[in-house]
Design goal:
4-stranded antiparallel β-sheet, Arc Repressor Mutant, subunit A, 8 helices, single chain, 2 domains
């Protein structure tokens, strides 16, 4: 799993971003200031750093310089809207991208994926039992054979992959698929697509071992 270090001293932002990015399939660790961030960098192998320019302790620019000098991993700066000086300085220090606050989480998620892909740090394949999902090509196979998932089946599978270990209610699945697909999906349609997806990925669709039903709550794919 890709590990992201979030260096931010606003607890509200840390809480919301950690929840969102964890739901996207990332392992997120956070630090409030320069000293804590650099200590974490020494102890754990991160693939990317989200770095606030203004920190209560230390300096975002100093953290960026240290990361680029010692670890060479991607850095995305979180800056105040319209702060041109911080943006320019960040790029001069080797930052890979920046995003101005306030930002939309899904825009940040896309920027993270793009940077990881460009720097070769992205995990392009994900295993789920005998099923392999290639998130770059947008394909899924089982034991080397293409599953030929429809667009909505593939989107549904991604939702489960990005929320492994979490029970997903039918309401949340409907909201998430609506958001991703941009098209109307009702409760009956969801039932049909879960059935079709199970028929393609499960060895025994009547007794699923991958997409499990949690009675009265929803569905769950076990954590890796």
């Amino acid at each position: 799993m890709i590990k992201i270090l979030l260096v931010e001293d606003d607890r509200s932002i840390v809480s919301k971003l950690t929840e969102f990015l964890t739901g996207e399939g990332y392992d997120v660790q956070s630090a409030q200031g320069q000293t804590e961030a650099l200590h974490l960098m020494e102890d754990q192998p991160f693939s990317l750093v989200l770095l606030d320019v203004s920190l209560a302790e230390g300096n975002g620019f100093a953290v960026c310089k240290a990361i680029k000098t010692n670890y060479g991993i991607p850095v995305i700066f979180l800056t105040a809207s319209g702060d041109e000086y911080s943006t320019v300085t960040g790029f001069e220090l080797g930052a890979d991208d920046y995003i101005a606050k306030p930002f939309r989480p899904r825009e940040l998620a896309m920027r993270i994926k793009n940077i990881l892909r460009l720097t070769g740090n992205a995990e392009t394949t994900v295993r789920l039992g005998e099923v392999t999902v290639d998130t770059v090509r947008g394909t899924a196979s089982k034991n080397g054979m293409d599953l030929y998932l429809s667009a909505l089946e593939y989107r549904l599978l991604l939702v489960f992959l990005n929320n492994r270990g979490t029970v997903l209610s039918r309401t949340r699945l409907l909201e998430t698929i609506w958001d991703i697909a941009g098209e109307f999906v009702n409760d009956n349609t969801l039932t049909v697509y879960i059935k079709r997806l199970r028929e393609k990925i499960e060895n025994d669709p009547q007794n699923p071992s991958i997409i499990k039903t949690v009675r009265g709550l929803g569905y769950k794919v076990d954590a890796p």
